[in-house]
Amino acid sequence: MLIAGTAAIVTYTLALLVLKLSLKYRLYPQVRQRDVHTTPTPRLGGVAMFFGIVVAFAIASSLDNFSLIFNEPGKVFGLLGAALIIVVIGVADDIWDLDWLTKLAGQIIAAGVLAWQGVQLSTLPIGGKAILSPYLSLILTIFVVVLVMNAVNFIDGLDGLVAGVAAIASSVFFVYAYLLQSQAQTEYFNLASLTTAILIGACVGFLPLNFHPAKMFMGDAGALLVGLLMAASAISVTGQVDDTYLSQPDKFTLEFLPAFIPILLPVAVLVIPLLDFGLAVIRRLRAGKSPFTADRKHLHHRLLDMGHSHLHAVLILYAWTFVASVGVMAFTFVPWRWAALMFLAGLAICAVITLAPLSRQKSREAAAQRTGAAPEFASGDARYDGLDAASTDTSPTPHTKEPTA
Prior knowledge:
Number of helices: 15
Oligomer: single chain
Order of helices and strands: HHHHHEEHHHHHHHHHH
Shape: globular
């Protein structure tokens, strides 16, 4: 609580300062055709989040409870060094709009620094199997980190979406990391739980300025930073589980499903970013475009098309993230049958809320058919979808980046 609160307070204070400077010196881009917001808005919030994270780590280093973490300073400095690289690349992109190849190269370098300093996938949580070689471990870690960073960046399209989703998912992941720590019967925190707590604080501290209607965006610097820390936490904790049952397949039943949580939970907490990223890549490749080509067909845009308001779309994605992450983690607390039942019930409720505008639309159509009048559609109705028309930005200034809000 102390470290997370520190990250939140420092992030919020510095975000106010960055906002004031950005407005004074006009450090914000013009609104593009594919953007959802209509007013030019500063998007350097990631800088404030970065310094909030650095200060929180600095204070944690002076506390005895975190001493074991800082007994391996290489991992901490590797994480902060990677974060610095990502923030520099993100700020440069937010100001000068870098091409996708330059951004990807910077992300690979940052992920390489993180993995080189020891935060990497060395074992898999299935029978404690070691990855074939150190080089393969390094490559796989870089791939996972870059994937998660881009997935998180892809969903950064609505006010408060990334900060809220990350705060919810990270809170669930923190509980899991803390439970692993308790099973080890140690009073010391690990790198995963500390990083997750700091990330929660940074996101919560930034949300007051980023929630709808947003005064400031975190930009690519913030979204990539959030993705980096989430990936680093998941990698740090992977493999910290008793996999005795998984090493005895003849005894395996569904009652031992919790042993798979180290694999399932990182996917569950990132389900929205990973799903959106996968759909975007498939959509763009099928259209013969680069996977990094910007468009307005992301999940949050589709929710707007269906008739949801900006706020409702964000809250719905919050709900999906909460249900997916808590639902998966529930298998560690309750019998698998009850956990599965709660999980399916949560998914059903989210599905009903998500599809509600379509039901209202059909009701209006049916009423119009009965009366013979033309149905009235909400401005966000998919039949009059202005988003698809904006999927290729025709503005004079070339853009290749994902929308930040």
